[in-house]
Every structure is written in structure tokens, then in C-alpha cells.
Amino acid sequence: MAKTTSLKKSAASQPAELENKLKRALADYDNLEKRIEREKKDFLLFFSAQLIRKILVVMDDLERCQNHLGNDGLSLIIQKFQQLLKEEGVVEIQAVGQEFDPELMEAIETVDGPKGKVVEVSLKGYLLNGKVLRPAKVTVGGSTENRKEK
Amino acid sequence: MSKIIGIDLGTTNSCVAVMEAGKPKVIPSAEGRNIIPSVVEPVKNLVGDVAKRQMILNPKNTIYSVKRLMGRKYADKEVERTKTMVPYDIKSGKNGMAVVEIEGKTYSPQEISAKILQKCKTDAESYLGETVSEAVITVPAYFDDSQRQATKQAGEIAGLEVKRIINEPTAAALAYGLDKKTGQTIAVYDLGGGTFDISVLEIGDGVFEVKATNGDTHLGGDDFDQEILDWLADDFKKENGIDLRQDKQALQRVRDAAEKAKIELSSSMESEVNLPFITQSKDGQPLHLTRKITRAQLEGLVDGLIQKTMEPVKACLKDAKKKPAEINEIILVGGMTRMPKVQQLVKEFFGKQPHQGVNPDEVVAVGAAVQGGVLGGEVKDVLLLDVTPLTLGIETLGRVSTPLIERNTTVPTAKSQVFSTAADNQTQVEINVLQGERPMAADNKSLGRFILDGIPPAPRGIPQIEVAFDIDANGILKVSAKDKATGKVQSIVIKDAVGLSDEEIEKAKKEAELHAEEDKKKKDQIEKRNQADGLIFTAERTLKDAGDKVEADLKKDVEEKIKALKDILDSGTDEEIETKSKELSDSLQKVGEAMYKNQEPKSETAGQAEPEGNGPAGSKKSESEEKPDKDKAEEGEVVD
Predict the structure, then answer these.
(1) Looking at the complex, does the CB of residue B30 fall below 8 Å from at least one CB of chain A?
(2) Active site residues of B
(3) Minimal CA separation from A52 to chain B, in Å
(4) Closest partner CB to A135 (pick from B53, B127, B248)
(5) Which residues contact B215 (CB under 8 A, 6 or more apart)?
(6) In terms of CA atoms, which chain B residue is nearest residue A36?
(7) Which residue among B46, B52, B249 places its CB closest to the CB of A122?
(8) How far apart are the first and last CA of chain A?
(9) How much is the pLDDT for B98?
(10) pLDDT greater than 80 at residue B314
């Protein structure tokens, strides 16, 4: 095996160094334990994040479709879908009319409208158990005078 | 003792890593990503993803690509060029150095970079759960003293003592452990989000010397995405007469889809862009963008960009006075090097396989962490612990190898398991210590054997023999067996349980793979026989317990079937054993029924009559017999 000789012989003559290394190893281990504990909690809360993120893409398309068709049946399907997401702890980020917040939203365009306020959501954002699952993509009202003329 | 973190302070993205228990680990940001966009909004103090998200609203206040300004004079050509690219204002500051100006206030590139470093520090601290005050930061190999000095200052502003500034290609080489390859020449091909760098290094006694560098400061993954985007948009325009690039919302979706397709095509041959309701036709009908793109098509689209990297590569080799064949090692850095075509081109040019394995987005940060580990005294070799190269176990009933310590377990380690006897009144067990991955004992290597005797006579399955494996840090294995009833112990010490050559390990693993199927078959056979054997045992005991409560002819029937099964136990085929077992089991059920009929269903002697027929114990011949592990056994006692 490539991984051989755990402790160098030269080190054996230096107890202080060995002690140092032992402390370091123990500290690493201790911290690792704490982190595993933390990560386990995070995992339980967010293990589904990746899957839900992928599923949201389909949800987006369904909603786009509904915007065009306005079909009753489809509306029921979307409702069911939304209910399912809610049960999993997924909450839509309310953006329209709100102050733009880069923690929750990503600005993709500015248009005429109240300055700094979200005018339109082009892609819904979601929180999963209070953490940003996907920021909302929004158009924001306001000043284009800030933009550099080229 | 705080750790020294390694930071790749990039033009587009930054990345942090740290050594933990001798291994580099990339630290996830507070946002849960391994990279942090190098974007800063200094007024509101936003850094990374958050700053990037508000960039379009706040273009004059949002600083990106600040690395292009680090330690440069305002009059510098690169600064000139950057000025035409970015929406924020670049001014001449103290000593004619380039600075950025936001709302009348000037910020040096160091101050902006410091914000990114500060985020790296904070994220690392929350990850590690301890204060971080020292760092190794990487810079491009072509950075001059002034630029290096500026980077160091940025670290200090962020509250980090910069233990060392190292070159990005050097960090990449360290990440692959190439510092030990004295006398070798290395080429590092780094195609990132926005810049391309090629460097040639020489290693002399653990010291890296940059022989030459070259590159293109404005070529990277973003250009590739743009090609795909244009292709999709042009195609759509031809078909529908609508230019998606004019519609910001549609453009955003196409851009995301282009990047996704690019990433997918690195691992699959075809990707589908599927964007329903992307826009509307003039008469209000919805239009969808659906397009298949193959890897070959993508390669055709970006061929020009990939070829563009080869000019600097050639120039760099020329400066280093090296021919492609004289390069001993090639390292790929940057997300774009995941593209198979890029890898192929590099491979063809140099005539050898580039190093792969470390994530190309993280390899520079990883190397910086390795350097940090060395500076912090966390030397790799000393902390390396042995692992057991092959599985260690003992032989159990039916000549099966029962694993105790799995392959790849880090030592020192210890494990114990409780076994029992295979036959009534068995007074000794032989412990055969085995090493190997095969399920049958005979196919594995026997490291040693010993006998534990003096077990008080008892029915099979009753004695509890605790077998303990203990490997110390030096790889010495001690195996002991203890009879829990008498406390009698026997043990053996085996010296070479860990020290195996790579070839031996490979051979053992290969053999296990090669024989996997037949081994499984063999093991199934043994299991069937063990089950049949257990059934016989249960049947005999049931008859004994039943005594005269069962009619004589039924008893006889069972006895006959026991004999029939016993006769073929060693010689019979699987099917025969299965059939005879089934017959016995059916008859046995009748015995059970009869007993219930003849008896008031009151208190039953638990644990004695096992109606299922295959009790915990197997049978004779072999030395010992596996029982559920210790905890389970104790649990069982409680229930009883």
C-alpha cells in the first residue's frame, strides 16, 4: 500500500512534536464530529434541495403554459403541485411591489416604474425551510441614469 | 492553533480551501457553493453571489474583474482595456495607481479585493468553527512585484496575515503533489471563466521556477457560452423572425440554457435545449425553443476559441525553450478544461495525458491550502495513517469468510463480534484469520490460526465466543477469542496484516472482481446448506420437545424426512436440498399444529421451539458459527 509508515522515525525522538501532532489530530477529529453533527442537521433540512430545484424548472414551464392557456384543468394540476411544494417546506419568494433585495432576488432588467421596487417577476424564487433555494429573477423599476453611457 | 487557509483570488471567481487531517478540503461559502463570484458592491458591502445579483441595477457601484486593476498604474494598457469593458469608473489615484470611484469616494483595488478575502475568511471560520488569521493567496505567474504587493495588502486589509503569495500554476502543481518530481518540466493550461493562462514551470528540489508564461486575458468560458447562445438565437430567428437577444427575459433563459447545455455536453454526447413559451409570434401564438445540440456541433461552434489557446501555448514553449515532448507533466485548470475537446487538443499537442482528478475549478485553492498546510507544520506524511488494504475476517460455518474489519478501514482500529458453536457439545473452536475479498475462506489468505478450547459442553448456538480484532498504529493485528462463560482467552499476533505491496492488493481486488459471480453462487450454495442444516437441528429438537404429544406416524414421517435431507446435505444439488428442506419444513409444521391441538395454548417455552424451522445456528463441520452481533444478542436476551 502506498500509504505506509504512519509516524516518521525521526519524530519519535521528539515527544513535544508528537504531542503537538496528536493534539492537532484530536482537534481535527473533534471539529469534524461537530461539523458532521451540523451537516447532518443541514442535510435533513436541505437534502431535497437539489431535487426540488430540478423539479421547479418543470413547474416554471407549467406556469408559463398556464399564463398562455388559462386552462381550468391545468390550474388544478398547478395547485396540486404548489401544495406538494408547500408540504416539503418550499415557499415562494414574494417579490412584486417589494423593495429589491439581492439576498432573495436577482435583477435581470430595469424598466420604467417605482425606483428600486420589483415591477415584474420573470422567474419565481423559492425558499426551502427559510433558506434561499433559488433567487427570484426580477425586473426592477427605476433609474437608468446610473448606467454608464457607452 | 489556527489553520492557514489557501485562497484562489480569481478574476471571475474565488475559492477557499484548507488542510484537514492531512487532506485538502474546499470550504463551501455561506451560500453553499464552492466558489465565490469575485464581485463587490462596497457601499452596501455586498460580496459574492449577492453582489452579482444586483449588478444590473447598480452597475456603477458593482465592481467585478478588479483583479485586472491590481497593482497597476492608471496608464497601464490592461487598465485602459478594462475601462472600456466595465461600467464602473476607474480613476488615477495616489502615485498614478488605478483606483475605482463610487459615489465620489475612491477605493483601491486592494480594498475591493479585501472584501472578497474577508468573505473567504468569514466563511472559512464558520466552516471550521475557529478563528482564521493566516492565509496563502495565489496570483497569476505573470504578476509583478507591485501586483503581488497589492495582493498581500488586500489580505492584510481583510485581517489576514499573508504567509505567502504563490503562483497559480505552482499551486496547481502542488495540488497534484508534483513538488517531489525534481528536474521535471510542467505545463499548466488554465482556461477559466474569463482568462486563459499557460505557464511552463521547472521543479528543482521542491522549488518551482516559472520558465515562461503566456495567455489571453480575455478568453474564457463566457465566450463559449456566448457562441452557443448566438447559435440558438440565430437559429430561432431564422425560423421565427424574432431575435431573442432583444428580449431580456428570454435572453436570460437562453443564456442559462446555453451554459447548461455546455456542461451537459462534457459528459454526454447530446443535450436538449427545451424552453417552452420562450416568446410570442406577432399574432400572439406562443413560441417554443427546442433544439438538440450534439457534442460535435458544440465542438464545431467553439473550435475557433479552442484553437485560439494554442497560439499562446506555442509562444510560451518557445520562450521556455522547450519542445512539447520535453514537457513531463501537464495540468489542466479552470472549468472549461472539463470539455473533452479541450482535453483532447492539449493531449495531442503535448503527446501525453494531462493530470486529472482534482476539480479544475478548485485545484488552485487546493494547492494553496497544501502550501498553507506545509507552512503550518501540518506535514502530510506524518499525519498519514495506514489503512487496511484488504478485508480481515475469520472462517465460519461452511468455510465461509466472515469479515470483521472491512478493506480501507483507517487504523488503529478494533472490532469484535460474538460467534457460537456449530454442533452440540462442541468444546473447542478454531479461529482461522483470513485476509482477502473473496467470500469463501479457501480463496483468501490465511494469516494464522489458533484454537480456543475448554468450552463447557452445551447445545450448539448457546456458547458465546467473542472474537476481537485489534490493529494498532503500526499495523500489528491481534486476534483474540474469549469464551464468555469461562472467561478463557486465546489470541494470536500477526505482524503483516497491513503491509502489502500495491501489486498484492491489486491482485487480490482483481481476483475478487473476476470471481465475483461464481463466488456468489458458491456462497448461496453454502447458505442453502447451512439453512438446511439448521432446519434439521430444529426438527430434531422439536421432536424431542414434543415427546409423545405427537402421533407416532407423524413423528416417523418427520424422522424420515430429516434422514432424507441429511443424506443429501453434502452431495445433493441445490434443487434437491431445496426440495427436501421444503418437505421437512412442511411436515414439521404439522407437528407444530398437532402440538397446539393437543395442548391448551398456554405458556410456551420461549426460545426452545422455533416454528420457522431455521433457527439461528447452522451445523457441524466448521469451527464456529456466526450469531447476530453482540448488541443484538443482548437485545435477544432481554426479550426472552
Answers:
(1) no
(2) 8, 67, 168, 190
(3) 16
(4) B53
(5) B142, B190, B195, B196, B197, B198, B312
(6) B127
(7) B249
(8) 63
(9) 95
(10) yes
Start-to-end CA span in chain B (Å): 53
Q: Label residue B633 by pLDDT band (50, 70, 90).
A: very low
Nine cell digits for residue A46: 436541505
Burial of B341 (0-12, 13-18, 19+ CB in 10 A): middle
Q: Do the Cβ atoms of B498 and A1 come within 8 Å?
A: yes
- Nearest-Cα distance to chain B for A83, in Å, is 23
pLDDT confidence of B508, banded at 50, 70, 90?
A: confident
Q: Mean pLDDT over residues B251-264, rounded?
A: 92
Nearest Cβ partner for B252 among A100, A105, A137: A137
* φ, ψ dihedrals at A50, nearest 5°: -65, -45
Q: What is the mean pLDDT of chain B?
A: 85
Task: Classify B389 as helix, strand or coil.
Answer: coil
Q: Which of B218, B170, B166 is nearest to B191 (CA)?
A: B218
* Contact check, Cβ <8 Å, A1/B248: no
Nearest beta carbon to residue B249 from set A25, A28, A108? A108
Three-class SS of residue A15? Answer: helix
All residues at 6 or more sequence positions from B84 whose CB lies less than 8 Å from its CB, including other chains: none
The CB density around residue B529, as the number of other CB atoms within 10 Å, is: 22
Q: What is the mean pLDDT of residues B26-48?
A: 93
Three cell numbers at B487?
Answer: 472467561
Nearest to A68 among B46, B61, B277 (CB): B277
Q: Which residues of B touch A108 (CB under 8 A)?
A: 56, 248-249, 252
**Helix (H) or strand (E) run with residue B288 in it:** strand B286-294
Grouped pLDDT means (10 residues each) for chain A, 150 residues = 42 70 77 81 75 91 90 93 91 93 92 90 91 92 52
Q: Which residue of B has its CA nearest to A149?
A: B87
Considering chain B, what percentage of its residues have pLDDT values greater than 90? 53
As a whole number of angstroms, the distance between CA B38 and CA B67 comes to: 9
Listed residue (B580, B584, B561) closest to B571, CA to CA: B580
DSSP state of B28: P
Cβ–Cβ < 8 Å for B195, B167: no
Mutate to test the interface with B, among A30, A53, A108 (most CBs of B within 10 A): A108
**Residue B476: all three cell numbers together:** 500489528
Contact criterion met (CB < 8 Å) for B20 and A32: yes
The 10s digit of each residue's pLDDT in B601-622 is 444 333 333 333 333 333 333 3
Interface ipTM above 0.90? no
The residue type found at B183 is: G
Residues of chain B found within 8 Å of residue A110, distances taken between Cβ atoms: 56-57
Chains A, B: CB contacts within 8 A come to 111
| A113 CB-contact burial (10 Å; exposed 0-12 / middle 13-18 / buried 19+) | middle
* Residue B391 and residue B435 in contact, taking contact as beta carbons nearer than 8 Å: yes
Q: Do A102 and B53 touch (CB under 8 A)?
A: yes
Beta carbons of A62 and B277 less than 8 angstroms apart: no
Check pLDDT > 80 for residue B329. yes
Q: What is the pLDDT of residues B434-474, one digit of tens each?
A: 988 888 888 888 888 899 988 888 888 889 999 999 888 77
Q: Which is it for the CA torsion B366, B372, B374, B380, positive or negative?
A: negative
State yes or no: pLDDT of B191 exceeds 70: yes
Q: Which three three-digit cell numbers place residue B491? A: 489470541
B500 vs A contacts (CB less than 8 Å): 1
The predicted model gives B23-40 an average pLDDT of 92
3-state class (DSSP) for residue B493: strand
What is the average pLDDT across B33-37?
A: 93
CA nearest to B128 within chain A: A31
- Selection from B330, B367, B5, B33 nearest residue B158 by Cα: B5
Residue type for position B426: Q
